[in-house]
Amino acid sequence: MPKRLKIISENCIGCKSCELACSLKNSGEMNQTRSRITEITFIEGKYSLPYNFVSTCRQCTDAPCLHSCPVAAITRTVVGKVVIIDHKKCIGCGKCIFACPFGAMLFNSSTRKAFKCELCAGNPACASICPTDAILFKYAKPFYAKAEDLKMKGIEILSQQNLANLKNRQKN
Amino acid sequence: MEATVPRGGYMQNILRVDLTEGKTTVEAIDPDILRQYVGGTGLGARLLYDENKPGTDPFDSRNRIIITTGPLTGTLVPGSGTYSVVARNTLTGLTTAAQSNGFFGARLKYAGFDAIIIQGQSDRLVYLCIDDDKVTIEDASMLAGKGTLATDLWLRKKHGEEGFDNRLSVACIGPAGENCVRFACLVSDRGHIAATGGIGALLGAKRLKAIVVRGSQAVPIASGNTKAFFDNCILWRREACNTATGRTVNEHGSIGFFANYHSKGWVPVKNLTTNEFPGHEKFDADNVRKKLHKGVARACSNCTFKHCHTVQVAEGPYKGVVGEEVEYEILAGFGPNWGIYDPGATTMLNVLNDDLGMDAKEASFLISMMMEGYEKGWITKDRLGGIELKWGDPEAAAQALRCISRREGLGDLLAEGVMRSSEALGGGFPEIAVYVKKGNAPHLHDSRARWGTLINQVMSDMGSIEGLDLSSRGSSDLGVETPTSEPNEDLGRVAAKTAWWRQFQESLTYCYYQTASAETMIKTLNSLTGADCNMEEALKIGKRVVTLLRMLNLREGMTAEHDCFSPRLKMPPVNGASMGKSLAPTFDIVRDAYYSAAGWGKDGIPDKETLIDLNLEFTFSGLKKEESCQKDSK
Q: Which chain B residues are within 8 Å of A41, Cβ to Cβ?
């Protein structure tokens, strides 16, 4: 059984340290827009109190992004079964961004390539930095998306943001 | 020697917003100023000194409002969303430097700016929208009179974050700011407040309702230092959780201080007429947090604590009210200081006050003064516009707050703050008013026997607490091994030194609760910016900031007589743990020791040698004018 990020939103305080730690580790800069994990705090809506929502790639067992890639740039590692992108092969077409139901496939408008959480080669920065154990790196059963996962407002927001980034690239 | 550009930590840009012209421009920051003042309050003080025209009214449209961040803002350093606002203080006529946490500071950096200079005056209500390098001044007429919470939601919706917070911050003023209430504040990220000195009123006078900011840029790290900086951040985060303050705030929020402060007689009760009140156990943190409220953490940028929460009152008359959890000072100030012994009521009042956009310090000591006056029969219900302003009545207090924010009836007078109201009302009011520095209410403590806090407020040149209060603990970083528990020369000397250290910290710009050891903090700064700072240099930077703030105030006509506190603060507590104690009898000794340690003369004016040593020669001219003005008037 491989290790996966387990997110416990009830523990999240909304500090966004995970975003900066992720971007620093993976792109060498403190830039939240380069983070592979996103935190959204819902202020007003269904509930009287806010809630903190954290989301990143689930490393789906049946990963739609992997199947959508026209140049086979997205593969799964043998050890750890992590879905990774070969940035040399990626042509930045954005098909994987449309395919990901979790809004976890991101687009870097400077490099014009897709990027996503690849679990920091087995030592995820987000789980290490989280001050309240809202992000754990634990052994987990294979993940299959359920219909109710996709109804989350946070997922909808992330998907829209990623598509908007892609669209801006196409305009430019 | 030409200063080299810092290698990391800064975006190197200032955004200048001219509201008269409706224009915005981007300017580079002088690297020498960054080296000498670091950022935050220091940078703001220097920019204000260079930019403001001396001798004007604080509301003069030519005056600037400077919003600054520091090198650490927006980084992995804990509590890195902080920003500082430096401007004229509407209460004292001097200078204010107010800080606020949340995310606003971090996002301003992500948009590419270290600071904003706001000048001029718009002819209509507007808001400033910063979206990376796209900066626009937009119409805000539809937000006129709206509270800060509704303003935040409306602007979030307009700019793509309807009901949620991901990358966007809003800092705004409420009706109090629009109506130029002298203690109106700037509220950012829904409940984080740059409170001191009437910044909201200054923004209201300029007709700037809000600033919306979003950015997508990286805060640079000095090349080759990324790993060292990351490791230092981790060390800082670990240390911050293990200080006495850190442990309390992490576990309980700042309301965790209540029981301890109460046992020392530091909680303000009924405008400082007593130090005892019934049911103080109800204010214990566990009871307030776990029983009387339920809450969800809503932390600031890169915080490591379960501190800031949005809460809902769970029982009592205000059951169901939702808002930010009160901090200790507001729990005390809107609770016992108004004779209100229901923590749920303080939540309701805090939500209201945040929404109206007023500084809780001034509001608390203002209403408590009026409640005492009402009890004594010095002011009638008719004069108060029908409000029965009795001790312990949250509804009456709420009505009074609303009237003040709209400047309605007597609210128009009270909107001038504690000191001005007490003088205008006359009679016994000046004797019961609680204020320092000829104008602003102090922080919400009964500081009469908390000498470190009181002297820090009295000597402060920025309207708020200037140094560290070491009256219950020492500081190994500053070589102060024992608490400064007596009001003697030592207190003055230590207060001066703590002010330099605290103002260096304020120039780094991070949340003060997240303080680590001096060594770690300086190491982190060096790895980020590529600087080579040490403790001696840090204290010198802090001393430069403190002295420049004094020079700013001297330029605006301050004298040694401003370093004072009101009669009520001189009266010893009549009961409780601090009974009989007062700073008043030895105050002159303490103040003179402070002046001497700071390198200032007995008139509170820095010596020429001190100014030269701190590279503040450019302030000589301001001083000369000040002295020559005095001569002229004679």
A: 164-166, 298
Q: Amino acid letter at B550?
A: R
Q: Cβ contacts (< 8 Å) between A132 and chain B: which residues?
A: 297, 306
Cα distance between residue B82 and residue B84, in whole Å? 7
**What's B184's DSSP letter?**
B
H or E stretch at B623: helix B620-633
Q: Please write down the long-range contacts of B21-28, taking CB distance under 8 Å and 24 or more positions apart.
A: B21/B120, B22/B122, B22/B137, B24/B128, B24/B135, B24/B136, B24/B137, B26/B113, B26/B133
CATH topology of domain A58-116: Alpha-Beta Plaits (3.30.70)
Q: Out of A51, A157, A161, whose CB is closest to B296?
A: A51
pLDDT of residue A171: 60
Give the percent of chain B with pLDDT over 70.
98
| Domain spanning A1-56+117-140, CATH class | alpha beta
Distance from CA of A44 to the nearest CA of B (A): 5
Which of B540, B556, B557, B552 is closest to B598 using CA atoms? B540
Selected residue of A15, A40, A55, A128 to mutate for chain B interface (largest B Cβ count, 10 A): A15
Q: What residue ranges in B167-234 does DSSP mark as E strands?
A: 169-172, 186-188, 192-194, 208-214
For B332-367, how does the pLDDT look when each residue is reduced to its tens digit (9 = 90+)?
999 999 999 999 999 999 999 999 999 999 999 999
Q: Does the structure show a pLDDT above 60 at B634?
A: no
Whether residues A49 and B296 touch (CB distance < 8 A) is answered with: yes
Q: How far is A19 from A125, CA to CA, in rounded Å?
A: 9
Domain A58-116 in the same topology as domain A1-56+117-140: yes
Tokens of A148: 């109710």
Q: Which tens digits make up the pLDDT trace of B160-217? A: 999 999 999 999 999 999 999 999 999 999 999 999 999 999 999 999 999 999 999 9
Rounded to whole angstroms, the Cα distance separating B609 from B617 reads 9
A17: nearest CB among B167, B302, B320: B302
> A55: which chain B residues are within 8 Å (Cβ-Cβ)?
none
Tokens 């603990």 correspond to what residue?
A: B473
Q: What is the rounded CA–CA span in Å between residue B497 and residue B466? A: 10
CA distance B526 to chain A (A): 17
d(CA B261, CA B338) in angstroms, rounded, equals 17
With beta carbons less than 8 A apart as the criterion, state whether A162 and A103 touch: yes
Burial of residue A144 (number of CB atoms within 10 Å: 0-12, 13-18, 19+): exposed
What are the structural domains, with CATH classification, of chain B? 13-214 (3.60.9.10), 243-432 (1.10.569.10), 452-521+532-633 (1.10.599.10)
Q: What is the pLDDT of residues B262-314, one digit of tens each?
A: 999 999 999 999 999 999 999 999 999 999 999 999 999 999 999 999 999 99
Domain ranges of chain A: 1-56+117-140, 58-116
Q: Could A50 and B217 be called an inter-chain contact, meaning their C-beta atoms sit closer than 8 Å?
A: no
With beta carbons less than 8 A apart as the criterion, state whether A117 and A19 touch: no
A24 vs B163: CB contact, 8 Å cut-off? no
Q: Tell me, what's the ipTM?
A: 0.96
Q: Reading across the β-sheet that carries B169-172, which strands appear in turn?
A: B134-139, B126-131, B208-214, B169-172, B186-188, B192-194
CA torsion through residues B325, B515, B87, B117, sign: negative
Which helix (H) or strand (E) segment is A83 a member of? strand A83-85
User: Does position B505 have pLDDT exceeding 70, yes or no?
Assistant: yes
- pTM value surpassing 0.90: yes
pLDDT(B5) > 60: yes
Asked if A15 and B304 come within 8 Å (Cβ–Cβ), the reply is yes
Measured between CB atoms, which of A24, A49, A51 is closest to B76? A24
* Residue A113 pLDDT: 95
